[in-house]
């Protein structure tokens, strides 16, 4: 078991497309969260549902810290090159852009193509990356970390 973990760590990292996609999306959601904390009105407009009252901006800050956490939770897994753990965390997070897409669809209607595309494409990229994370194969012989 320990050997498999070391092999997994050895072969998954900066040379892997799934590693970089995971890192970019983690940093991206951290940025979005920080923007929501610092500029909640701007964040809400970017999300696709503007606040109807400036007092609602506190909800942007609440959303922001959750976004920051969503990105930060992946960073230790990336640093330690824990592909399978990152795959599970990343895959469970797909629910967020899917629900965001549905919120935009039912709040703004099908005509808000810009925001529907942002959330929809994010979900599709995450689905594709999850597939890569779970089905990564090493080109080097002797890598059995992906078999279980």
UniProtKB/TrEMBL annotation:
A Pfam family the protein falls into: DUF4267
Q: What is this protein called?
A: DUF4267 domain-containing protein
Could you tell me the keywords of this UniProt record? Membrane, Transmembrane, Transmembrane helix
Residue ranges of the TM segments = 17-38, 85-104, 116-134
Native organism is Dawidia cretensis
The protein's superkingdom reads Bacteria
- Lineage, top ranks: Bacteria, Pseudomonadati, Bacteroidota, Cytophagia, Cytophagales
């Amino acid at each position: 078991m320990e050997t498999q973990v070391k092999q997994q760590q050895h072969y998954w990292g900066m040379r892997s497309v799934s590693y970089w996609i995971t890192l970019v999306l983690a940093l991206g959601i951290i940025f979005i969260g920080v923007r929501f904390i610092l500029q909640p009105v701007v964040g809400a407009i970017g999300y696709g549902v503007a606040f109807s009252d400036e007092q609602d901006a506190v909800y942007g800050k609440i959303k922001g810290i959750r976004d920051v956490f969503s990105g930060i939770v992946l960073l230790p897994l990336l640093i330690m090159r824990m592909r399978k753990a990152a795959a599970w965390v990343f895959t469970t997070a797909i629910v967020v852009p899917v629900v965001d897409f549905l919120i935009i669809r039912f709040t703004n209607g099908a005509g808000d193509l810009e925001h529907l595309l942002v959330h929809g494409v994010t979900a599709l990229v995450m689905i594709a990356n999850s597939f890569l994370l779970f089905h990564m194969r090493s080109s080097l012989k002797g890598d059995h970390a992906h078999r279980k």
